[in-house]
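dude i think i finally got it to work??
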Amino acid sequence: MTKRMSLHERIRHVLMIKKIPISDLAEPSGKSYRTILNYVSKDGTEPDAAFFKALKVKMPDLDLNWILGFSEGDPFFDEPEKGPIEEPLWQEWDTEHQ
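look at this
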């Protein structure tokens, strides 16, 4: 039986595949470098929604179900789901759901 990857291992895995440095996620997620480093460490803290949003913006083809452990196989779709997430769309959603 193969060991299932943890959330932290899955995040680290996709960052390595796409060659995205942790520093590239700090500003868009509003998190410090150290906080994101904790997200990918073995005993690190659990990421929040802002981090997953930044991941999806950086990697539109990322399967968030895979990251969260709800699906197996390839962590990426063949094509982005619907292209990159536009910031104005998120701002509109945030305003409507406050």
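Residues 68 and 93 are 22 Å apart (CA to CA).
im so relieved honestly
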